[in-house]
Amino acid sequence: MNTKGRKTAAILTAMMLMTAASGSLAADDSFLAAHYTTGSLSVQEQTAGNLLNNDRALYNLAPLSIDPALCRIARIKSEDMRDNQYFAHTSPTYGNVRQMLRSFGYSYSAAGENIAHHATVEKAQAAFLSSPGHRKNIMSSAYTKVGVGIAADEKGFIYLTQIFAR
Is 107 helix (H, G, I), strand (E, B) or coil? Predict the structure, then answer.
């Protein structure tokens, strides 16, 4: 890991420790909870959003605003993939990302989606960056907001959904 990567990892670790020490983590906030639909961002979702914006910053791009409404929809998409045992951009329940946003009453002028199924948010973000299509979504100036949602499967691997919007 290079110096910049070690600094980023150290900052993220410190942020997570400060959050845990402040007592803001409830016992039921575990990302392994069977039905994961809390209204607030989990530590893993916060980390995923921070990693995404850190990667944008490396290319002098403005951070995306982390939108709680988009996070809720992204979390539902991750849960849908886990619960219905599929991994695809088109949900058998909600359709594609644009159809899903419309069905939840979310207004947008541009939308995109990244999905991953990995052991950690760090591995998922690294996979996104190594894929030209996913990287394009992350680095796009067409988007101003992002929602990040995570659901864990029975083995502890995470489904991570990033929904981008303007």
Answer: coil
Structure token pair of residue 126: 């690294």
CA-nearest of 126, 136, 128, 137 to 1 is: 126
Phi-psi region of 85 (alpha: psi -120 to 50; beta: other; left: phi over 0): left
Cβ(66)–Cβ(146) under 8 Å? yes
Region 149-156: what's the mean pLDDT?
A: 94
Question: Can you read off the two tokens belonging to residue 21?
Answer: 């020490």
How many Cα atoms occupy the beta-carbon half-sphere of 20 within 13 Å?
A: 10
Q: Is 70 exceeded by the pLDDT of residue 5?
A: no
Give the pLDDT band (50/70/90) at residue 106.
very high
pLDDT score of 42: 86
Question: Strand (E) positions, the chain?
Answer: 65-66, 111-118, 145-152, 158-165
- Torsion, Cα of 44, 45, 51, 54 (10° steps): -130
Q: Residue 139: how many CB atoms within 10 A of its CB?
A: 15
